[in-house]
């Protein structure tokens, strides 16, 4: 706790920086805000609002629950991608959870060998 005017100024500065960060990234207003994520076996294609696409490796330490998937991304300024259940339709969120847990999406089983 910083008392007096310096504490008040520090509190206002921190609130302003948080608001600016939320406006730029979290509210999808800035050119570097994330717009799409394409899944591959161990990589992600991150598409940003300015049209840039970055291919990055996903960390093995992922968090998966019924309501949230958090995927840390290596080698990008964007450190973690958070996706909540209400951001996607039910089946897409299910596929994302499967990918985050097992590193692949569900597919059709191959035909058994004739024999």
Summary?
The protein is of the alpha+beta class. It has helices at residues 4-26, 90-102; strands spanning 34-39, 43-48, 53-57, 63-64, 68-72, 80-84.
Describe the protein.
With 115 residues, the protein is of the alpha+beta class. The chain has helices at residues 4-26, 90-102; strands at residues 34-39, 43-48, 53-57, 63-64, 68-72, 80-84. A 3-stranded antiparallel sheet has the order 1-2-3, with no helix packed on it. A 3-stranded antiparallel sheet has the order 4-5-6, covered by helices on one side. Strand 4 and strand 5 (68-72) form a beta hairpin. It is elongated. The termini are far apart. The model has no long low-confidence stretch (mean pLDDT 81).
Features:
alpha+beta, 115 residues, elongated, 3-stranded antiparallel beta sheet
What oligomeric state do the depicted chains represent?
single chain
Low-confidence stretches: none
Cα radius of gyration in angstroms: 19 Å
Into which percent range does the helicity of residues fall? Answer: 25-40%
Structural class: alpha+beta
Strand order of the largest sheet: 1-2-3
Anisotropy-based shape: elongated
State the total count of DSSP E strands.
6
Number of helices: 2
- The share of residues in extended strands comes to 25-35%
CA-CA gap between termini: 76 Å
